[in-house]
Design a protein that fits this description.
Number of strands: 28
Radius of gyration: 32 Å
Oligomer: single chain
Shape: elongated
Structural class: alpha+beta
Number of helices: 24
Largest sheet: 7 strands, mixed
Strand content: 15-25%
Distance between the termini: 41 Å
Length: 720
């Protein structure tokens, strides 16, 4: 599936990869992609069985598919990820159950002998080692041919060594111990571990699959036609009945209802919609019937962009994982040499060949780097999936490192801590043309993307021709409306403002309107603080973070808002192009800064910050510049995103710490002969199980947004 990523102008193609058995496979595939002429970047994730490739027109999909096929894997551009993962899980189950039965039977015969039991066990072991364990031998062969040893190489060498030795002893009638039980146990318990992993990876992708299944397969048009969702086009008007999900992004044309966006954005409270309201594809309609005009379809919808961002986050690596990958790449050759050395040394010290072989096989098995490979991708998969369920979209796993060191959070005000839905509470004019001035101002404001423009919507009167629209950052806007020169903004935009238009006692924003450099009317605008803003600031403070309010408002107004929200530090009267400078200044003072914003003017500051956080109501420019996107308008989600990111990073570190500790303890025991191959296989499987279980705990992360804030609805202002 090819598309254009919002993060790059290059073509982005997604492949589903079949046949990967560990992260070393993913690394080889990624390296093969990057070696191709025309490929700019590639990310392959073992946990999700997916790869994302950014490339130019010099290379096409069939060439990339053929390259991966040469490595022994199958790449599918148009496939069902869930089907591939379910098929892999089913195959592992079919291989695991017989292997486990044979292993248990072989262990029993170690204590309960009967005539011909050795030959029966040998026959069953052949089935176990060669049929159930074939996936390891096949992968090991590819790894050896490509000179890239990995986990499967160790398993294959260990099981074949134990099986071959035992077959030779049995055929020659030698008085030596048989090790069929160890070979069977290795295959059985490693397969059990891989089966657990497959189930965990499949279920960890539930969040992304839930997003994919939110939109309906068919849509009913207003004219009565019924189309497949793929046939829907921008501009078409469709009906969303009560209890149905909205088919795609659009604008309500007729009807009133409430929509539930909790599954798509994490927004817990139903949202009222009416003609003119915008709705996102996938939201659940309430009791009213709606007629919606499609404004985006297919890959351009907000839901598709969310899915794309989640996929890209799942395929990126945490910085600490690069160290783990480097260790794992050097680890397997080291283990092979260690096993051979153990075999030679123990044999040279007078131990029997059988005892020396047992120690060597145990070293190979106990050192399988399953937990190394799973430590990061499974935790990131579970963490980003849970974040998506909570309405927090993580742009990449680098965010996990960023949130760890953040000590300062800077909030833009309008649309983040306030609702971003300002209203005009009073008007004044110097003549009797106030209605005309408001209508002309509304037409001009319709070209502005600033939230304050919404306050003028009630004064819109039909279509108007707007030309030469100009934005004056921090002051207002100007342009020609139906041939009339119009200015709307602060007093600084005008050469003269009559004293009668000024209201010094008003705590909100006063904007002036004029058909030239002299103001002729004024409007008083207010915005509401979000009910949960106070709680959001308190939660961040409890996390040890300093909160700063960055506003273009006057010091008086900004200080009033900050006092209501318990924010101690205020930076006010900041022009939009100065926001980035203030972020850089904070960083120069030694602070690690997160910036929360929503507008086009916030994009440079979001990009400059150590961690950029955009809110759902924001513009595409803001969201594309951000590291975290909050798909709910509840500012408490900022604390959710930071907290869950930190928890995910701690889980990754815990997994890696366990993987290192496990090998540090188990390897010496295996080398010295205190750990048999059977117990080595059990220990390795348990190690993988602990990593899986620890990672899956992230799926049960509790959102901070559990109670509604009791904060009063304070009134504050918005400005251009």
């Amino acid at each position: 599936m090819a598309s254009t990523s919002p993060l790059t102008e290059k073509k982005r193609t997604k492949f589903l990869i079949q046949g990967m058995s560990c992260t070393a496979c993913a690394a080889r595939i990624e390296s093969a992609f990057l070696d191709l002429d025309g490929v700019e970047a590639a990310k392959v994730n073992f946990a999700t069985a997916t790869s994302l490739v950014w490339h130019n027109q010099r290379i096409d999909s069939p060439t990339m598919v053929a390259t991966i096929a040469d490595l022994g894997f199958q790449a599918v551009e148009d496939g069902d990820r869930q089907q591939i993962q379910s098929s892999n899980e089913s195959t592992l189950k079919k291989k695991t159950v017989p292997a486990l039965i044979i292993a248990i039977f072989a262990m029993i015969t170690m204590f309960v002998q009967f005539p011909g039991s050795d030959w029966v066990v040998a026959s069953l072991s052949t089935i176990c080692v060669w049929w159930s364990g074939w996936i390891f031998h096949r992968a090991a062969r590819l790894q050896i041919l490509q000179r890239s040893l990995a986990m499967d190489t160790l398993i294959s060498l260990g099981t074949l060594a134990a099986w071959s030795w035992s077959i030779a002893v049995l055929l020659l009638g030698a008085e030596q111990s048989l090790h069929f039980g160890g070979a069977n146990a290795i295959v059985a318990f490693v397969l059990v571990g891989k089966w657990w992993e497959a189930r965990a990876m499949r279920t960890s992708g539930d969040a992304l699959r839930a997003l994919a299944n939110l939109t309906p397969k068919q849509v009913l048009l207003r004219d009565g036609r019924e189309l497949l969702i793929e046939e829907l086009m921008v501009g078409m008007e469709f009906i969303t009945a009560p209890g149905e999900r909205v088919a795609t992004d659009g604008q309500v044309i007729e009807g009133m209802s409430e929509v539930d966006a909790s599954q798509a954005t994490g927004e817990s409270a139903p949202i009222e919609v009416s003609p003119g309201s915008r709705v996102s594809g996938g939201v659940l309609n309430g009791t009213g019937s709606l007629v919606v005009k499609a404004t985006a379809v297919g890959e351009d919808t907000e839901l598709s962009q969310i899915k794309r961002l989640v996929e890209e986050a799942e395929t990126t690596r945490v910085h600490i994982q690069r160290l783990a990958d480097l260790v794992a790449a050097r680890f397997v050759p080291f283990v092979v040499l260690l096993a051979l050395g153990s075999l030679a040394v123990r044999w040279g010290l007078g131990h029997s060949v059988s005892d020396a072989l047992i120690a060597a096989v145990a070293v190979l098995v106990v050192s399988c780097p399953c937990s190394f490979g799973l430590a990061t991708p499974l935790a990131v998969l579970a963490g980003t999936g849970r974040a998506a369920q909570l309405g927090v979209i993580v742009a990449g796993s680098h965010v996990l490192d960023s949130t760890r060191v953040i000590d300062t959070v800077v909030f833009d005000k309008t649309g983040t801590l306030t609702t971003g839905h300002p209203s005009i509470v009073s008007t004044a004019s110097t003549g009797e043309n106030k209605g005309l001035l408001l209508a002309l101002a509304a037409a001009l404001e319709s070209r502005s993307g600033h939230p304050v423009a919404r306050a003028f919507e009630p004064f819109t009167e039909g279509e108007a021709e707007v030309a030469k629209f100009t934005n004056h950052p921090g002051q207002g806007i100007s342009g020609r409306v139906n041939g009339i020169q119009m200015l709307v903004g602060k007093a600084e935009l005008f050469t003269e403002v009559p004293p009668s238009l000024k209201n010094p006692d008003f705590d909100g924003t006063t904007l002036f309107i004029g058909r030239g450099p002299v103001a002729e009317a004024s409007v008083s605008i207010q915005d509401e603080i979000r009910p949960t803003s106070i709680e959001a600031i308190s939660l961040l403070a409890d996390m040890g973070l300093e909160v700063i309010l960055l506003s273009g408002d006057s010091h008086q107004v900004a200080k009033q808002v900050a006092d209501q929200l318990n924010i101690a530090t205020v930076i006010a009267e900041v022009l939009p192009d100065q926001k980035r400078d203030h972020i850089v200044a904070l960083q120069s003072a030694g602070k690690c800064v997160a910036m929360v914003g929503d507008g086009v003017n916030d994009a440079p500051a979001l990009a400059a910050a150590d961690l950029g956080i955009a809110v759902q109501a924001g513009t595409d420019a803001a969201r594309n510049a951000a590291d975290l996107t909050i798909m709910t308008n509840d500012p408490r989600a900022v604390a959710d995103g930071i907290s869950l990111s930190r928890r995910t990073l701690r889980t990754v570190k815990g997994n890696l710490a366990w993987a290192f500790s496990y090998n540090a303890i188990a390897l010496p025991l295996a080398v010295t002969g205190y750990l048999s191959p059977t117990y080595a296989a059990i220990a390795m499987a348990c190690s993988s199980f602990l990593v899986v279980a620890n990672s899956l705990r992230l799926r049960y992360f509790k959102s901070i947004k559990t109670t509604q804030s009791l904060a009063p609805e304070f009134k504050v202002d918005s400005i251009h």
